[in-house]
User: What shape does this take?
Amino acid sequence: MDYGLVTLLPTVLVLALAIWSHRTLESVLAGALFAFLILEGTAFLDAMAGATLQVLMTEDVAWVMLVCGLYGGFIGLLVNGLWPSPDKSDRDQARQFAGYLGPRFGDLSG
Assistant: This one.
């Protein structure tokens, strides 16, 4: 099937929603849903779920999500602590330490 100019509609939707709402993630998700709706019709949710699972189950994506999630959680604990400190110098020191660790542990692939 030849879609022609219809293929531009999800992109236009993403741009319009992003400019109007100032929210990028929701705009991209709406564009992806709309693109799957164009491609698959009423079975778009099944197709999108299948494509999402196929992408997320690759080893590289799992590794990136694991490293980013753990590193982000570690930085969150450093900056905020288990109980947020009212002392500003503690938070500044934690941010400096997290900035020090970033370049040293940025490439964990070996």
The CA atoms of residues 3 and 76 lie 46 Å apart. The mean pLDDT is 81. DSSP finds five helices and no strands in the chain. The helical segments are 9-21, 24-40, 44-56, 59-80, 88-105.
